[in-house]
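Below is how a single chain appears once it has passed through the pipeline. First comes the sequence as given, then the structure the pipeline wrote out for it. We keep one example in the README because the format questions we get most often are answered faster by looking than by reading.
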Amino acid sequence: MHKGRLEAFSDGVIAIIITIMVLELRPPHDAYAWSLAPLAGKFLSYMLSFIYLGIYWNNHHHMFQAVRHVDGRVLWANMHLLFWLSLIPFVTAWIGENGFRPAPAALYGMVLLCAALAYYLLSRLLIARHGADSPLGRAVGSDRKGRTSVGIYMLAVLLSLPAPVVACMLYVVVAIIWLVPDRRIEKVLSE
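Resulting structure:
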C-alpha cells in the first residue's frame, strides 16, 4: 500500500489533538496581568505537551520520508501510536489542573512511555518491511536515543509518586533530548 493516506491521516489527528489541547486553556475573567498567575501550571503543561506533539509529528514525518510502502501491521501500529498521543490532552489538563501532584504526574509519564513504545514498535515494523539495510534501518540503527528515552520515562514514572516535580523535570529532559533536531534520517536520505 502507498503511505500517503497514512501520513495525511496522522497529520490530521495530531492537528486535532493540538486543537483539543489548546481549548483547555481558558482565559481568566478579569483583565489584570496577575490573574494569569493561577494558569501557570496549565500553561507549562500545555507547552511541554505541545513540544512533545511537535516532536512526534516531526519524527513521524521524517520516518515516513524514509519508507515507500506500508502494510496492515504498519497501519495498526500507527493507530496504536495515535491512540496514546490522543490521550495527551487529557493528561495535560489533569496535570496542569492539579499542580503536578503524584497521580497526574505518574499518568502523564505512563502516556508518554506508552507513546514512546508505540513509536518504537512502528519504527521496527517499518524497518522489518523495508529491511535493515533500508534508509530507515540505517538511520535508526539500534535506536539508542529511543531506548534511552524509554528508560528515563520508566524512571520518571517510578519517581512520580514520591517526587512528582523530579518526574516532570525528567519529562522535560526527554523533550530536550528530542528537541535537538535528529538528523539521522535526513543524513541517510541525502546520501
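The chain has one domain: 4-189.

See the next section for the split statistics.
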